[in-house]
Amino acid sequence: MSIEVRHMSKTFGRFRVLRDVSLRVETGELVALLGPSGSGKTTLLRIIAGLEQPDAGSGPILFHDEDVADQRVGDRRVGFVFQHYALFRHMTVFENVAFGLRVRPRRLRPSPRQIREKVEQLLHLVQLDFLADRYPHQLSGGQRQRVALARALAMEPKVLLLDEPFGSLDAKVRQELRGWLRRLHDEIRLTSVFVTHDQEEALELADRVVVMNEGRIEQIGSPDEVFHQPKTEFVISFLGQVNRFHGRLERGKVHFASLQWETPEWEQAEACPAHVFIRPHDLQVAASSNGQPALSACVQHIHSAGPKVRLELATDGGQKLLAEITQEQYRTEPLTVGSRVFLTPQNIKVFPYPSDST
Amino acid sequence: MQRVLPGFGLTLGLTLLYWSLIVFLPVAALVVRAAGIPWEQIVRTMTDPRVLAALGLSFGGAALAAGLDTMFGLLVAWALVRYRFPGRRLLDAMIDLPFALPTAVSGIALTSLYGPNGWIGRWLEPLGIHVAYSRLGVVIALMFIGLPFVVRTLQPALEDLDPELEEAAASLGAGRWATWQRVILPTLRPALLTGFTLAFARAVGEYGTIVFISGNLPMKTEIAPFLIVVKLEQYDYAGAAAIAVVMLAVALLVLTAIHRLQTSYSFLRG
Ligand SMILES: Nc1ncnc2c1ncn2[C@@H]1O[C@H](COP(=O)(O)OP(=O)(O)O)[C@@H](O)[C@H]1O
Q1: Is the dihedral of CA B16, B22, B28, B29 positive or negative?
Q2: Which residue's alpha carbon is nearest to atom 13 within ligand 1?
């Protein structure tokens, strides 16, 4: 079941939370809505579910190319997993999962035996069979999350929507559940959309990532695309740390700091100012100059606990930079706080901007 | 386990001391007093139709009023918590009025409102509905004093009730009615029960508000606390104590039953 929204806008009071958002999710895809807090991700998810009404004048909401904008949430058959799970605390795990089946109109309601079988099968799927008789408050956060998921799946939804599914869990559980959710999705292939503000989570889990900012979609693409071919400055800055320079684009070259760089993709552009972005791992660090043009900087902090060694640097002009080197290089090169190093970019990303803005 | 706040022993000691002085001693005195009454007299008192009618009205009326209060109180609390409307804060402040008014004042106010010539009574009288000097009046008076207990107990519970629960139920296909019946009411049940209990307990013991509006007609609108006063005025201390002990026993029984029901919802905590 594909999902499509066209020209979706939403205003709360005078505050425009969504501005003309269009998005299509293909059948069986797992899509992440990624953006900073307040960018409108949850609102978009809730509009798809029918929990929120879009502004008048918005386009249709299509499930499998059928407009569901006028259907109520209960009729849309969406499995919605709430950030804080919203489990029914007076019901056991079993009853929570059975809820969607028990409230069906009588002629559509499965028999008690069918309900039991279905619920047991779902609890097995989320690996919680042994907790069927517990109450929600007796479960850990990760277990509650899985109950919420089983409950949403019980009504045989056409699409699955998850609001910050790992938002309130600690790091280790997040990591586990992430892998688990990916495997579950590969198994059941239900069209799914989840909201997250964690870029790592989105990049690791999703088939496609929708990067949102201030109520707009900045870019839609595979994790690889949005990471390696960011279309806007926002996307490159949001997906991980990055160094930014002011530069100038002229005749297919960009000049920044003391360096210049060939930019064939901007060959045709008129001379104009530009921002130059370099990821920390794209800055090669050397303790001594090899005669090539390089940025010279001074080491201010070294964070060596981790798979990579992160260096905080300051150029002579006072600009702060981040660089990343391997543990091997750190062990062989004489780097200490205060060392002078020479930086050569391996890869850069240029965004020209009109001279009247910054 | 090392507690952060010390003084469990001290706290318990003080609690027991206060409870003994303020609650236990008077009750014990009552029981001792009643224990001195000849058995036949207790039986005679307890089989007196007038006494039975008064006890029936006190407990029955209190249960009915508390039940109705629980329903209306839920409505009022829901409106106060969930909606924003002009006058909401004023209404919220007014809820406590029955707490604050001397009961005699409430009684007089209700009587002048519902009496045959009262603002409301005037219109009900031609319809054949007599509020003053009838059991209906007693129940209305009991509802008046019981309502704040229900509203004030339910408000925090409703504020705690996450709207996401309703959204979850709706997304799972539950209609409005199913959501109320299967999700909201069960979640609120402990608070509803507490509110009911408080309103009931208050109503059983109520005296001042009722005596004006009820007219205290024996066998009809006479409540047990009033009958106790009547007996005292006739120097029938034994009779008064006998009724009192029965009231105490029934009240204890009811409160214990409700308490046990309440603890069976312990899973709602946490
Ligand atoms: N019901 C609401 N009433 C008013 N403002 C809201 C409401 N829901 C969300 N907002 C506002 O809309 C903005 C976007 O919210 P949301 O969609 O939750 O963003 P995100 O999920 O990206 O954090 C936020 O600034 C939030 O304060």
Answers
A1: positive
A2: A38
